[in-house]
Design a protein that fits this description.
221 residues; mainly alpha; 0% strand
Length: 221
Amino acid sequence: MMTITEQNGATLDSIWQERLTEQFLQFARAHVWGWLVRWNRVNSCPLPEVDLEDILSEILLTVLHFKLPEGASVWEPCLMAYLKRVARRIYNRFRSQRRIVLSLDALPPELLPTVSIEDTCSQDEGAFVQAVAQQLLKMPRHHALAFLLQLESELAECLLQAGGAALERHLACDALYELVQGAPLPDREIARHLQLTPRAVIRARQHARERLRNCLQAIGA
């Protein structure tokens, strides 16, 4: 059983780690976007801004797993090197995917890949949206909102309509439709509405995505 001193020490450690992680995220936001814009400016096949935003979100998720090397006394240069390595790898992956899409766009219609009816999913789009809406109902409120408010507004509205009054009651968010119309919202704004830290918002969205991924894989099995 922990003593009061040990409990206080554990609480302080938790608060310190939370603040340090927030510093890591602020540092990443301050540097990574500039790198992405510069790399994109000199790229012969530049990515659209929405892809750069997706890359930034993915990088911020990796920051949550950053561990300071043993023996390091200053974290900034360590995190800087880590971010540059991760950002370059993710940017190159998105650029490769973009090249594939552009290559397909350049093909004449008769040479484009075709999909037969047997290859398509048996669930129609409405059933898919309904399945996602039902999963949002089953997950914690802040997980569902962290996920919903970073979707494109059109998709977020479809999910709200599919979930109906039950989903609205579950989300219990003032001005919900106004927020959805402005989606995707930045993590800091979502955090303000949920009264959480941006780090907590990112982790909540990660949990929501994992739950949805498992559910949709089960549906498609």
